[in-house]
Amino acid sequence: MQIGNLFTDAASPQKGERFDTIISHRNLVIERIISSSGITPQEYIQPQDEWVLLVRGEADLRVDGKLVTLKAGDYLFLRAGVPHRVERTTEAAMWLAVHLHPEQSATP
Fold first, then answer.
1. What is the set of domains in the chain, with CATH numbers?
2. How far apart (Å, rounded) are the C-alpha atoms in residues 76 and 78?
3. Contact, 90 vs 53, CB < 8 A?
4. Pairing status of strand 28-35 against strand 66-71
5. Rounded to whole angstroms, how far apart are CA atoms 94 and 58?
6. Global pTM?
7. pLDDT in tens, 21-64
8. Residues 6+ apart with CB under 8 A from 1
9. What one-character-per-residue DSSP string does the chain give?
10. By the 8 A CB rule, do 50 and 99 touch?
């Protein structure tokens, strides 16, 4: 049994984002992401599906060319291969990301 708290050690990094793996089991990876307001947008095109929940803060993402604005409590499903990038976040924005990898690239 693994017990934890999303808000433990949840201070914002000085710049960019911090990715903390909460659990990695078979082809499932769940991570907490803490964003500073000083991020450098980076495009992602991932081989896995990803479901993200914005736990706190606000964020603007560009998903497949469309601007999406999220506030705390909003979630989004990103299919594998869909280009996306975070363009803006408020300070200490917190995400919960659930990655479902294809079986052949599963993590032990």
1. 22-100 (2.60.120.10)
2. 6
3. no
4. unpaired
5. 9
6. 0.90
7. 999 999 999 999 999 999 999 999 999 999 999 999 999 999 99
8. none
9. -----TTTT-PPPSSSEEEEEEEEETTEEEEEEEE-S------B--SSEEEEEEEESEEEEEETTEEEEEETT-EEEE-TT--EEEEEE-TTEEEEEEEE--GGG---
10. yes
